[in-house]
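Objective 1b. Sequence-to-structure analysis of Cytochrome B5.
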Amino acid sequence: MAEKTFTTTELAKFDGRNGHPAYVAVKGIVYDVSNLPVWKGGKHHGNLAGHDLTSVMSRSIHMETVLKDIPVVGKLVD
């Protein structure tokens, strides 16, 4: 199966609202945070699903630990 790719415009549709899944991108990888209680409603600590959070996550000292258990759904291509 081919890997799913997302543009920033496509990623924005996955905002976790109105029944949509909640996806976020970090370092070009798109993660599905839909089933994480901390992302309820597509928001977490002021961050919004449907966005590239690379700059935010790069400041996190536990980024690798947090991301390792979150399902990957594809790659961000732009």
